[in-house]
């Protein structure tokens, strides 16, 4: 879909000089440098305003999560979710109480008068008591995610740097769209995505529920319409209840009148008779039945009934009705029944028929007290119309890199620009290809503009994840392509202080890892600063294939074994010196990401050493022949040196290589073997 037409303030320092123990008072001793203020904890998205104190707030056996009596009902769910997460990270179970906070407590307050924080921002005051304050439950929840990440970053998982913080987002709606119409994703996966989104303070989960290959909602009123793989009303209720816990809004999309093959298969009388509108050039359109014949009253009645049954299943204020990839004017004007309908209704253009249909859907959605959302398509690629979509419709602007022109027309816009935020792993083969987000450009250069003019504004930004040409791939395959773009968009749309480079940002994000309960909730990346890499073979003449490229957090660079003047036979190995003994519990292997298959490791062993001479194998296996990052977890073990040995290539070529080798360390008090 939409892929072929082508995101430390200074404080006063107190200086105290003291003589070291064991020195004579008569001996002149230089005063040590003043203790510096704590830097902001490197959470993601990063904190906007931080004033560092000195020392640490520590959880103890007496620590509690404290609510005020007047707010206990509103904040109870967030407080208990917080307690569960802290237990996973710290191994400590903190009781949730209504009381006066005391030293070592975490106090949650939801009635802040700080208007700049808005409904999603929060403030932290970290001293003897850690106080999180916001204007309501959502801001308090986001504060708990920051606290959890800060504790996770602490080596003993019990402390947070003292200081004060104020943090709020630049952009109201920070969204992910997932194409479950073309590919069914199980409910468990959708829940995983919701938890990951909340960890990154993303607000909105847009589900593209219908497309040519599937209708994913079971509706008793339309027996036989739903695909074999689909969601029952009970499952959708369960999903939204889970999402509410994590302050994520689930927005449904029923794509109309294009992308409607399941509907026209269910009821063939909904089809256009003319070939120009019945078929389409987009994937799946060659099958026919692509666009509903909205010149028929029967079709309009069918759609009205369908939406009447879908809307009550969802809590969101938004209902997405699609509206994209309808045949362009040459296709519309070649359809006799469409032209006749245009003339009978007195419209100037055939395009007016579809704008009028969209406006009628908007009237229906608004009658339920909800807001219509649609893809901005009606005027793209020279399409003509004499009427426009109603200004109450929120438009997803995906073709334009800059949403300003659409905003200037008075529309509220959610921007999902194809070149910047489209994730289509069935197409892009290297970073920067169509559908494979150029994370360097998105993080370092894209402005995420938020124009406001003529009553229009930017409501949000959205990563759009499409399943075209990858329907049979695993969820892990899809996650590989979406993982980094979601992190980048989350940081940029929140308004976090920008890291020096995309690679610095990615390293910090890896150090935080994922939320409690996920595999990366128990593990985080060992920072690569201070690591050194050596290898038995590297290419340095024909390309930059140095071993050091695997520890630069830059997926655009690669270690590659020598092939000039001739390649050496397998096995090959790369060795990392960690600089000191570390506790490890896994690693990630990222093959090269430039569309070349050279260097993809097949069979491998992973060994550790404390002296660089005696090695012990802790894992072995074989990687598949694709470009996705692979994660290997093993029982925690001490190591000063690690060695990845490639005994074969995944594709039979005589090379080994990697874009990145990332070591994983325990990141919570409870790390399962």
Please tell me about this protein's structure:
- The chain is α/β, with parallel strands linked by helices and about 675 residues long.
- It has 16 helices and 28 strands.
- An 8-stranded parallel beta barrel has the order 8-9-12-13-14-15-16-19. Strands 1-7-5-6-4-2-3 form a 7-stranded mixed sheet, covered by helices on one side. Strands 20, 21, 23, 24, 25, 26 and 28 form a 7-stranded antiparallel sheet that branches.
- Strand 5 (about 120-125) and strand 6 (about 130-135) form a beta hairpin.
- The relative contact order is 0.09.
Helix fraction by DSSP (H/I, runs of at least 4): 10-25%
Overall shape: it is globular
The largest sheet is: 8 strands, parallel, barrel
Strand order of the largest sheet: 8-9-12-13-14-15-16-19
Compute the CA-based radius of gyration: 28 Å
Secondary-structure-derived class: alpha/beta
Unreliable sequence segments: 1-32
- Roughly what fraction of the amino acids lie in strands? 15-25%
Q: Give the distance, in angstroms, between the N- and C-terminal Cα atoms.
A: 42 Å
SS element count, helices? 16
Mean pLDDT: 93
The oligomerization state is single chain
Total E-strand runs: 28
